[in-house]
Amino acid sequence: MFDHTRQLAGPASVKLTRFGGLGSGDLPCWTAVPDRRDTTKPPLVAIHGLHRGAKVQATTLASYAEAFGQTVIAPLFAREDWPRYQQVVRGGRADLALLSLLSDLAMAGISGTKRLELSGYSGGAQFAHRFAMLYPHRVSRLTVIAAGWYTFPDDAPFPRGLAAPKARSAGWHLRDHNDLRAFLNLPIRVLVGTRDDQVDNNTRSGTRIDAQQGRTRRERAARWVAAIQDAAHRCGIEPDITLTELDGCGHDFRTCLAHPDARRQLFEHTEFPEAR
Predict the structure, then answer these.
(1) Nearest in space to 43 (alpha carbons), one of 92, 100, 110
(2) Mean pLDDT calculated for residue range 78-84
(3) What is the pLDDT of residues 17-39, one digit of tens each?
(4) d(C-alpha 24, C-alpha 231), whole Å
(5) pTM of the model as a whole
(6) Per-residue pLDDT reduced to its tens digit, 36-63
(7) What does residue 51 show for φ and ψ, rounded to 5 degrees?
(8) In what order do the strands lie in the sheet with 2-8?
(9) How far is CA 64 from the centre of its chain?
(10) CA distances for 150 relative to 52, 214, 231, angstroms
(11) Torsion of CA 25, 115, 220, 168, to 10 degrees
(12) Which of 163, 249, 250, 264 is deepest in the core (most CB within 10 A)?
Protein backbone atom coordinates (compact mmCIF):
# COMPACT_ATOMS: atom_id res chain seq x y z
CA MET A 1 0.00 0.00 0.00
CA PHE A 2 2.66 2.46 1.02
CA ASP A 3 5.01 4.63 -0.94
CA HIS A 4 7.78 6.29 1.06
CA THR A 5 7.32 9.66 -0.59
CA ARG A 6 9.18 12.13 1.60
CA GLN A 7 11.27 12.51 4.72
CA LEU A 8 11.69 15.55 6.94
CA ALA A 9 14.55 16.80 9.04
CA GLY A 10 13.90 16.19 12.71
CA PRO A 11 15.64 14.97 15.85
CA ALA A 12 18.68 12.90 14.89
CA SER A 13 17.26 9.75 16.44
CA VAL A 14 13.74 10.09 14.98
CA LYS A 15 12.80 9.19 11.42
CA LEU A 16 10.08 11.50 10.07
CA THR A 17 8.43 10.02 7.00
CA ARG A 18 5.34 10.62 4.91
CA PHE A 19 3.66 7.50 3.66
CA GLY A 20 1.39 8.15 0.72
CA GLY A 21 -1.50 5.88 -0.18
CA LEU A 22 -1.07 4.35 -3.60
CA GLY A 23 -4.70 3.39 -4.10
CA SER A 24 -7.84 5.49 -4.30
CA GLY A 25 -9.16 6.12 -0.82
CA ASP A 26 -5.99 4.91 0.90
CA LEU A 27 -5.17 7.00 3.96
CA PRO A 28 -1.69 8.57 3.96
CA CYS A 29 0.08 9.61 7.13
CA TRP A 30 3.19 11.14 8.63
CA THR A 31 5.11 9.06 11.12
CA ALA A 32 7.79 9.92 13.68
CA VAL A 33 9.61 6.72 14.59
CA PRO A 34 12.42 6.91 17.17
CA ASP A 35 15.52 4.75 16.71
CA ARG A 36 15.19 3.61 20.31
CA ARG A 37 11.57 2.63 20.27
CA ASP A 38 9.96 1.19 23.38
CA THR A 39 7.94 -1.65 21.90
CA THR A 40 5.87 -1.97 25.09
CA LYS A 41 4.31 1.44 24.43
CA PRO A 42 1.37 1.76 22.05
CA PRO A 43 1.77 4.32 19.27
CA LEU A 44 0.37 7.80 19.72
CA VAL A 45 -2.08 8.47 16.88
CA ALA A 46 -2.51 12.25 16.52
CA ILE A 47 -5.48 13.48 14.48
CA HIS A 48 -5.28 16.88 12.80
CA GLY A 49 -7.89 19.64 12.73
CA LEU A 50 -9.85 20.98 9.78
CA HIS A 51 -6.73 22.61 8.29
CA ARG A 52 -5.37 19.08 7.73
CA GLY A 53 -2.07 19.79 9.54
CA ALA A 54 -0.87 16.19 9.82
CA LYS A 55 2.73 17.19 9.13
CA VAL A 56 2.55 19.84 11.87
CA GLN A 57 1.33 17.20 14.31
CA ALA A 58 4.18 14.81 13.46
CA THR A 59 6.94 17.42 13.53
CA THR A 60 5.67 19.06 16.72
CA LEU A 61 5.52 15.72 18.52
CA ALA A 62 8.79 14.33 17.14
CA SER A 63 10.93 15.47 20.08
CA TYR A 64 8.61 13.71 22.49
CA ALA A 65 8.67 10.58 20.37
CA GLU A 66 12.44 10.67 20.78
CA ALA A 67 12.29 11.31 24.53
CA PHE A 68 9.79 8.58 25.31
CA GLY A 69 10.63 6.04 22.63
CA GLN A 70 7.07 6.24 21.34
CA THR A 71 6.02 6.15 17.70
CA VAL A 72 3.77 8.99 16.52
CA ILE A 73 1.33 8.40 13.65
CA ALA A 74 -0.40 11.44 12.13
CA PRO A 75 -3.01 10.43 9.51
CA LEU A 76 -3.92 12.85 6.74
CA PHE A 77 -7.64 12.93 5.95
CA ALA A 78 -7.72 14.67 2.58
CA ARG A 79 -10.67 16.98 2.13
CA GLU A 80 -11.77 15.40 -1.15
CA ASP A 81 -11.83 11.86 0.27
CA TRP A 82 -13.01 12.53 3.84
CA PRO A 83 -14.82 15.89 3.82
CA ARG A 84 -16.46 15.21 7.20
CA TYR A 85 -13.87 12.91 8.73
CA GLN A 86 -14.49 14.45 12.15
CA GLN A 87 -17.91 12.74 12.21
CA VAL A 88 -16.15 9.37 11.74
CA VAL A 89 -18.80 7.53 9.71
CA ARG A 90 -19.85 10.29 7.33
CA GLY A 91 -18.21 11.49 4.15
CA GLY A 92 -16.05 8.43 3.43
CA ARG A 93 -15.94 6.22 6.56
CA ALA A 94 -12.84 7.70 8.12
CA ASP A 95 -13.02 5.11 10.90
CA LEU A 96 -12.48 2.22 8.49
CA ALA A 97 -9.68 4.12 6.74
CA LEU A 98 -7.82 4.55 10.04
CA LEU A 99 -8.27 0.90 10.98
CA SER A 100 -6.89 -0.13 7.59
CA LEU A 101 -3.96 2.25 7.96
CA LEU A 102 -3.08 0.85 11.39
CA SER A 103 -3.21 -2.68 10.01
CA ASP A 104 -0.87 -1.78 7.15
CA LEU A 105 1.53 0.01 9.49
CA ALA A 106 1.62 -3.05 11.73
CA MET A 107 2.49 -5.23 8.74
CA ALA A 108 5.26 -2.76 7.87
CA GLY A 109 6.66 -3.03 11.39
CA ILE A 110 5.90 0.58 12.29
CA SER A 111 3.03 -0.07 14.66
CA GLY A 112 3.23 -3.38 16.47
CA THR A 113 0.19 -3.22 18.71
CA LYS A 114 -3.56 -3.59 18.38
CA ARG A 115 -4.20 -0.75 20.85
CA LEU A 116 -3.22 2.88 20.51
CA GLU A 117 -3.09 6.11 22.41
CA LEU A 118 -5.41 8.45 20.54
CA SER A 119 -5.28 12.23 20.55
CA GLY A 120 -6.96 14.87 18.45
CA TYR A 121 -6.95 18.63 18.10
CA SER A 122 -10.04 20.70 17.18
CA GLY A 123 -11.83 18.77 14.40
CA GLY A 124 -9.42 15.92 15.11
CA ALA A 125 -10.60 15.92 18.72
CA GLN A 126 -14.13 15.41 17.43
CA PHE A 127 -12.95 12.42 15.42
CA ALA A 128 -10.88 11.03 18.29
CA HIS A 129 -13.60 10.86 20.92
CA ARG A 130 -16.18 9.49 18.45
CA PHE A 131 -13.74 6.85 17.20
CA ALA A 132 -13.04 5.86 20.81
CA MET A 133 -16.78 5.54 21.44
CA LEU A 134 -17.07 3.16 18.48
CA TYR A 135 -13.86 1.22 19.12
CA PRO A 136 -13.00 1.48 22.82
CA HIS A 137 -11.20 -1.87 22.67
CA ARG A 138 -8.65 -0.34 20.25
CA VAL A 139 -7.86 2.68 22.45
CA SER A 140 -5.74 2.60 25.59
CA ARG A 141 -5.97 6.33 26.30
CA LEU A 142 -7.81 9.32 24.82
CA THR A 143 -6.69 12.97 24.75
CA VAL A 144 -9.18 15.52 23.41
CA ILE A 145 -7.81 19.01 22.72
CA ALA A 146 -10.07 21.98 21.88
CA ALA A 147 -12.96 20.14 20.25
CA GLY A 148 -15.57 22.37 18.65
CA TRP A 149 -18.42 20.14 19.79
CA TYR A 150 -18.99 16.70 21.26
CA THR A 151 -21.07 13.55 21.03
CA PHE A 152 -22.77 13.19 24.41
CA PRO A 153 -23.56 9.81 26.00
CA ASP A 154 -27.31 10.35 25.66
CA ASP A 155 -30.20 9.67 23.29
CA ALA A 156 -29.85 12.75 21.09
CA PRO A 157 -29.37 11.92 17.38
CA PHE A 158 -25.78 11.48 16.23
CA PRO A 159 -23.51 13.46 16.18
CA ARG A 160 -24.96 15.31 19.21
CA GLY A 161 -25.70 11.99 20.95
CA LEU A 162 -25.58 8.25 20.45
CA ALA A 163 -28.98 7.65 18.85
CA ALA A 164 -29.26 6.96 15.13
CA PRO A 165 -29.78 10.20 13.18
CA LYS A 166 -32.96 10.78 11.21
CA ALA A 167 -30.95 10.37 8.03
CA ARG A 168 -29.16 7.25 9.25
CA SER A 169 -25.40 7.13 8.75
CA ALA A 170 -24.49 3.56 7.85
CA GLY A 171 -22.19 2.12 10.46
CA TRP A 172 -22.89 4.50 13.33
CA HIS A 173 -24.08 2.62 16.35
CA LEU A 174 -22.76 1.83 19.78
CA ARG A 175 -22.80 -1.91 19.32
CA ASP A 176 -24.03 -2.76 22.80
CA HIS A 177 -24.07 -1.53 26.37
CA ASN A 178 -20.64 -3.01 27.00
CA ASP A 179 -19.12 -0.69 24.38
CA LEU A 180 -20.36 2.34 26.28
CA ARG A 181 -19.04 0.89 29.53
CA ALA A 182 -15.68 0.21 27.90
CA PHE A 183 -15.51 3.80 26.66
CA LEU A 184 -16.43 5.19 30.09
CA ASN A 185 -13.62 3.14 31.61
CA LEU A 186 -10.96 4.73 29.38
CA PRO A 187 -8.47 7.28 30.73
CA ILE A 188 -9.69 10.50 29.08
CA ARG A 189 -7.89 13.85 29.16
CA VAL A 190 -9.74 16.94 27.91
CA LEU A 191 -7.79 20.14 27.27
CA VAL A 192 -8.87 23.62 26.14
CA GLY A 193 -7.23 27.05 26.19
CA THR A 194 -8.50 29.74 28.54
CA ARG A 195 -8.63 32.09 25.54
CA ASP A 196 -10.41 29.58 23.33
CA ASP A 197 -13.74 31.25 24.01
CA GLN A 198 -14.56 32.73 20.60
CA VAL A 199 -17.45 31.35 18.56
CA ASP A 200 -16.44 30.73 14.93
CA ASN A 201 -17.83 28.83 11.95
CA ASN A 202 -16.24 25.57 13.11
CA THR A 203 -17.93 25.70 16.51
CA ARG A 204 -21.23 24.59 14.92
CA SER A 205 -23.65 26.77 16.84
CA GLY A 206 -27.42 26.47 16.89
CA THR A 207 -30.31 26.51 19.32
CA ARG A 208 -30.28 22.78 20.09
CA ILE A 209 -26.49 22.45 20.04
CA ASP A 210 -25.90 25.47 22.28
CA ALA A 211 -28.61 24.36 24.73
CA GLN A 212 -26.97 20.96 25.08
CA GLN A 213 -23.30 21.84 24.84
CA GLY A 214 -22.80 25.53 25.61
CA ARG A 215 -21.61 28.31 23.33
CA THR A 216 -17.81 28.25 23.45
CA ARG A 217 -15.20 25.50 23.36
CA ARG A 218 -14.47 26.12 27.04
CA GLU A 219 -18.11 25.70 28.01
CA ARG A 220 -18.49 22.65 25.83
CA ALA A 221 -15.43 20.92 27.24
CA ALA A 222 -16.70 21.41 30.79
CA ARG A 223 -20.21 20.18 29.97
CA TRP A 224 -18.95 17.10 28.15
CA VAL A 225 -16.63 16.13 31.00
CA ALA A 226 -19.54 16.49 33.44
CA ALA A 227 -21.77 14.38 31.16
CA ILE A 228 -19.15 11.61 30.93
CA GLN A 229 -18.77 11.64 34.70
CA ASP A 230 -22.53 11.40 35.20
CA ALA A 231 -22.89 8.57 32.68
CA ALA A 232 -20.03 6.65 34.30
CA HIS A 233 -21.52 7.01 37.76
CA ARG A 234 -24.87 5.74 36.50
CA CYS A 235 -23.05 2.64 35.25
CA GLY A 236 -21.28 2.16 38.58
CA ILE A 237 -17.93 3.25 37.09
CA GLU A 238 -15.47 5.64 38.71
CA PRO A 239 -14.44 7.70 35.66
CA ASP A 240 -10.83 8.55 34.89
CA ILE A 241 -11.48 11.84 33.09
CA THR A 242 -9.95 15.26 33.72
CA LEU A 243 -10.39 18.75 32.31
CA THR A 244 -7.29 20.94 31.99
CA GLU A 245 -7.55 24.59 30.98
CA LEU A 246 -4.37 25.87 29.34
CA ASP A 247 -3.71 29.34 30.69
CA GLY A 248 -3.21 31.97 27.99
CA CYS A 249 -3.83 29.61 25.05
CA GLY A 250 -6.24 30.32 22.23
CA HIS A 251 -7.24 28.05 19.37
CA ASP A 252 -3.81 27.13 18.02
CA PHE A 253 -2.20 23.68 18.07
CA ARG A 254 1.42 24.78 18.44
CA THR A 255 0.57 27.21 21.24
CA CYS A 256 -1.37 24.55 23.10
CA LEU A 257 1.40 21.96 22.78
CA ALA A 258 3.96 24.50 23.97
CA HIS A 259 2.09 24.66 27.28
CA PRO A 260 3.69 22.32 29.86
CA ASP A 261 0.29 21.20 31.16
CA ALA A 262 -0.66 20.02 27.67
CA ARG A 263 2.50 17.94 27.31
CA ARG A 264 2.07 16.57 30.81
CA GLN A 265 -1.49 15.49 30.09
CA LEU A 266 -0.68 14.12 26.65
CA PHE A 267 2.23 12.02 27.84
CA GLU A 268 1.48 11.80 31.59
CA HIS A 269 5.15 12.17 32.37
CA THR A 270 6.49 14.33 35.17
CA GLU A 271 9.88 14.92 33.62
CA PHE A 272 10.06 15.76 29.95
CA PRO A 273 12.26 17.93 27.73
CA GLU A 274 11.27 21.26 26.25
CA ALA A 275 10.14 21.20 22.64
CA ARG A 276 12.97 21.69 20.15
Answers:
(1) 110
(2) 90
(3) 998 765 556 899 999 999 888 88
(4) 40
(5) 0.89
(6) 888 888 999 999 999 999 999 999 998 8
(7) -80, 0
(8) 2-8, 14-21, 29-34, 72-75, 44-47, 116-121, 139-145, 187-193, 240-246
(9) 17
(10) 19, 11, 15
(11) 50
(12) 249
